[in-house]
Queue: 3 jobs
Job 1
Amino acid sequence: MASNVEVVQLSAAIGREFSYKLLAAACELPEAELQAELDKLVRAELLFQKGRLPDASYIFKHALIQDSAYQSVLKKKPQQFHHRIATVLERQFPDVAATQPELLAKHFTEAASTENAIEYWSKAGQRSQQQSANNEAISHYRRGLELVATLPESPQRDGLELSMTVPLGVAMLAARGYANPETGPVFDRARVLAERVGDPATLFYILWGMWAWRLVRSDLNECRKLYSTLLDIAAKQTDPSWTCEAHFAPEVVNYYAGDFAAS
């Protein structure tokens, strides 16, 4: 009976639907014993089986059954199960790790493996952005930033936070528009971090994002302050593209202000 309980608990920790190969890799039982336990669960109609072993997959008959099984895990060793699942996915299922980084992020989060979880939430955000799924990217970056906030203060933490805050701001611009009130504070925070870390390249493009956000909101006085800083940073660089971008900003502000001659 103990084996049966562990199989159903581990299955519930993986998710409502799972592959036999993943369960077998994460389970500590011999395969013959695992298959016997799965047969019992299928006959009891707790699980449905699709396909034949070893390529079979299983699904809990009802989400409530999975939830009940998972709640029983919470009383014992949820972190162990989730860490085992995440580690198996990372080492033995590289395709899943590459295409579904959010799955590993969730398991590492539940396993309280904070640094690993942050890494995969960041990867999940990047992958979603590459697919133009910006709302998903926002969710992934925010989950990662919640974990970053639990780390002790350090330059490393600032760097991690910066690496997720900048793309979060970009995703918010794309998904919710340049005038969305939630976007400005994200770039403001990114500016603080970039100045603290001492990264002029990142700071330049953060300031550009702050400038664009305020421009669309017609906050032209703040835009003038920002483009002055952009010009100062560009003047210290040898890359002419920085100078081009920096000089573009004040002329757009002049145009929006109605000063067409200056623009």
Note: Residues 199-263 form one domain.
Job 2
Amino acid sequence: MNLELWSSLEFFWPQILLGSSFGILLSLIGALLVLRRQIFFGITLSQGVSLAVAISLYFGYDSPLFVPLLSLLILLPLVVFKKSRNKDDEAFLATLFLAFTALSQFLLNLGGNVTNHLMAAYFGDILTSPVSWDMQFFIPFLFALFAYSVLHNRFLSYSFDQDFSIVRGNNPIQLELMYFGLLIIFLSFSIHMFGSYFSMSQLVIPCFALLPWARSIKILYVGTGLISFLATILGFLLSFQSFPWGQEELHLPTTSTIILLLCFFALLSRMLYRSLGR
């Protein structure tokens, strides 16, 4: 290991640790989203969280609790409305997605120094993420993680067999609110630190890559977590290397490298599955 790589690993270890941890967490939560065939709904929620991040940056609210609370305020009514319709309305979700995007762009054009912060919220490099060890961040996050672990089996049962879950006494609206509420909280923390596209990619791509191979939910979880971890770590390592480009040296953007690696692993997995005649 060369000196430059070692020094980069030593300096950026908080981003590596949190980036890989959040990637694995989102990939596991996103597996249920993919199994439910609610991917576009999850992407719309992610864009709504990005709007909440944009609002917090524009008005200068730095509290780690502001973005999750605002995201819940914006998006939980959408969860209730969606459930009451009893079907996925793709046109409605597309309209909301575009509205959230346009509002974020509107804020971007309003404000001076906030422009760089808003661009970071979408495309920002994970190496410059505002990693903080403040307990105001970790206490609500750990509480949400504990709540998800306790409720996971109920979420899983409802995802595979809604009728059986209802017979066992589970309220479908309550389960939806709890699942998507916790998903919104996790996305709020992740998007605030690492950007929207990193978070959305980790949410969807690892499960998409492993879904054809999985014969049990445990295999699916292990596989998605492994792909997320490998792509994140390899993305960091590649971004720490310098590549000759004309008269200069090129450094790859970490976030985009991680996303491209996730896409590469997904396409490779799908192509291999088809080539074996599965």
Note: The mean pLDDT is 78.
Job 3
Amino acid sequence: MKQLGNLESFVRSAEAGSFSAAARRLGLTAAAISRNVARLEAQLGLRLFHRSTRHLTLTESGERFFHEASAGLQVLEHALANVSIAAHRPAGVLKVSMSPSFGADYIVPLLPEFLARFPAIIPDLRLENRPVDLIQEGYDAAIGGGFDLPSGVVARELARAHVIAVASPSYIARAGSPQAPSELVEHDGIVLRSPSSGRIRSWPLSNRAGEHAPVELRNRLMLNDPESVCRCAILGIGIAFVATMNTVQHLRSGALVRLLPEWHADIGPISLYFAGHRQLPGKTRAFVDFIVEECARRGLARLLSAA
């Protein structure tokens, strides 16, 4: 197994072009990756990389070895995954990315059942507001929206992401409730700034009749975190447009009230992303099947629908 670790360190370093990138993917330190590659070079009696302070490039021998070793490593990984599946014990560290609010509210509550069903899997959940590169960053899966779908990655839709207008009872008592999208311009707005682009997010609204309307508010406060937008709306600062996944609990408690109930914006799917290998590792297949099954059983799509 130590030799397999050395081989994997070499292949991932060659793919990524650096020891540090390979280390992030494998959950090790760059120094550990460098030592593993050095051991492999000593075992083979070959220099596999040209090293400099900024660049890591394959030697001619390293290039030949990489093409053969990468194919062999994939076969070994699939074999190990198949053995795990055959033993009905998917195992290993499962690295998954998801947004903090969605993860905390909808995925974390599923973990006790998942851990009981798959005791040999160790979830490593990264709660972050960004679309990750599944392959380059070494994630087993990701949950969210707005992801590019590169070759080799597939998506399973869990629900639609709908944006609705909300405000606190105190704001409505003070400023009134708009009866049509055209009246929004008369109200204070708590607006969301995109964490990635820095731009103010705005989505055109639509209703069941197929009509469309822009969102125009008096910008009173700008934030780059949707959960913080909800918190400020609860404080009565103004009207906010936020995804239903961020507002369900506040609507249920009465801390927020939905405005313009005939109108919403559909901003795309909330999906589960994973590598589309024919021989998916047992730990990833177990997670994908479990999440899809539980989200369907708990009616997630219906819960988050604003239609």
Note: The domain at 2-86 is CATH 1.10.10.10 (Arc Repressor Mutant, subunit A).
